[in-house]
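Researcher: Can you fold this with L-homoserine in place?
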Amino acid sequence: MKVGILGFGNVAAATIESFLANQDLILAKARVPIELVRIATRTPSRAHGRAPVGCQIGNDPHALVDDPQLDVVIELTGNVPLGRELVLRALEQGKHVITANKALLARDGAQIMACAARAGRRVLFEGAVAVSIPIIKTLREAAAANRIASVVGILNGTSNYVLSQMSEHGADFSTALAEAQRRGYAEADPTLDINGEDAAHKITLLASLAFGVPIDFEQVRFKGISDIEREDIEFAKRLGHQVKLIAQAKRVGGGLVIGVQPTLVPNRSMLAMVGSSMNGIALQGDLLGSAFLYGSGAGGKETSSAVLADLLELANGSESNSATGAYNMGFRDAAPTDAIAEGRPESMDAFYIRLRLDDRAGTLAEVSRVLATAGISAHSLLQDAAQGSLTDLVVITHPVSEERLRHTLPQLRHAAGRDHSVVVLPVLEDCGC
Ligand code: HSE
């Protein structure tokens, strides 16, 4: 099996290094010999001396994709428009594709999978989500017979690193982000990590694998961690919670809700224990009950583990079941599943509300009146001694519909007073782990 690699960034370089380091073991597990014969990169000089002997190194990715001797193209460019063009061209020419490009798959996966189905070729992407956790193979194979109820995860290593540093070491946001970048966790554009988009790409793919819905990034709501303040992390801790960037795909009423947002996670949940740049995923299925998967979420070497596992899968797999594309995403065309819910279904969640109030008689009563009038009941309450003329009041509510809570926000803002903040974060409901 002859293989070409597109790109020579952090992940591609690590993939080649790992292949060479573990070649004896990899080849001992492969049904057919695997040869890395060609690399295309904008900077060929970086690859010289680091590629297998005899491997052709060039700077023309189109020439690599068109090379008739190749059976497999590994796309590690990290670039969406170029990646799309090269992946589609490789599939049309009858090559299997391995990619870790989650942005590409979340945005153009439907087109790519349809192209793969027409060509009868595989598109494997274990390295695209939670690199050290075999979540793609788990959903496509190990949990295949389950009606999945929810997939809830911490899927962005950079955000988790930043939040963990703020929580455990009192670090400030930008210092923690700079360190995550230095350690190679962050995307080339770290905005994608911090604004929740990278995690949204990943949950888009997991939702499609778990529920059989089309890959459709436009349906996924996301919000990142850039507004999270140290005060909220500290209050959450005092109330027995950790603030985490949570990605979820779950059945609600008659539909599916897929989204990413900063969320308070109770300390009893295993997700609360996922620190540093690690990822964690809680699954609930009608047959398996609950499962929790934990592992590294980022890093070149860690991603190489997933990419090389995909390569071994191709070296050992039969092609006969790929003709309809069913195997790539697990489901055949007519998946017996709910559609992605339109609008906001009536899900009931608990919420954390922090109000910065004037420290004077009557403000607490006003907040209580607003909540009582809306029928929102408080589960926990915390108020600190005033700092000057201001004080923070924190409420964790009992479950309430998001719609109802949103209706009360103008009145809560009014109660807080001019220019005083109101922070609202959801609290994770039971996800089985
Ligand atoms: N930037 C990503 C993260 C890398 O921080 O999780 C792995 O996808």
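Model: Folded with L-homoserine in place. The chain has three domains: 2-131+301-329, 135-295, 348-427.
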